[in-house]
Amino acid sequence: SGDVGYDELIHGSPTGLSKDFTRFLDCLGWPIQVETHSGYLGQLGKDICETTPYYADRNTEVIFHVPYLMRPPGPDVPLIRDHQLITHFRSVISTDQVAVVWMEERERMSNLLPLIDQGVIVYILIHPLGGDSAGGLFWIRIMIPNTHTNAGMARLTANPLMIGPLADGMLVSRHALGNLVRNTAISADKACRQVMDSYTEPSATRARYIQDVLQTHLPDEPETVSEFYRTMFTT
């Protein structure tokens, strides 16, 4: 929420999580049990997280780092472990390039963002309008801070339509919020990688690996990939 402090991020508001926020988490993906999940975990482990939203389709696999859910299994988190939880939280999000930030109070945005790792490139900010209403609207901000000054970030800033389907300043209904935010976060992460000078298209990476296999397993390199497969799988 917009209240400032790592204790607020880890333990939540003293008044509890809003219904809109819990509905939003449910719409981001389906909850998985970290201990038994066999898919992508994004540096999460059962010692610091019991459950978290997860989504996958044939092209994408994504897991969401929710500070409030980063706690050991059990009903309570002892205050003595706050420092350890914060350390785990910062370690887990250290490679995240996109942050989805829920703001109950828009005025506190400037105080909340510095708590998030400075490696974040794109912020997707969500502010509920009109209180905790089932049919409410949500104001969206998409921010790319100027702390990143390399050429790739300049290209991303100059071409904000690389990120979507949400755009800065949009109003979104509760029913569409989870799906649109998830797709925008996936799009933003892909855009962050594409503008990097070191980025290589997956097809080029795959072709390089195939070429490595060719050179490793055959003394005489075949003329075509189809010839290679025929040689490898025929008896």
From TrEMBL:
Q: Do the record's keywords include Ion transport?
A: no
Keywords, alphabetical: GTPase activation
Domain Rap-GAP: residue ranges? 1-213
* One GO cellular component term noted in the UniProt record for this chain: cytoplasm
GO molecular function terms attached to this record: GTPase activator activity
Q: Does the keyword Ribosomal protein apply?
A: no
Kindly state a single biological-process term from the GO annotations of this entry: regulation of small GTPase mediated signal transduction
InterPro entries from the UniProt entry: Rap/Ran-GAP_sf, Rap/Ran_GAP_dom, Tuberin/Ral-act_asu
User: What name goes with this protein?
Assistant: Ral GTPase-activating protein subunit alpha-1
- What are the top taxonomic ranks of the organism? Eukaryota, Fungi, Fungi incertae sedis, Mucoromycota, Mortierellomycotina
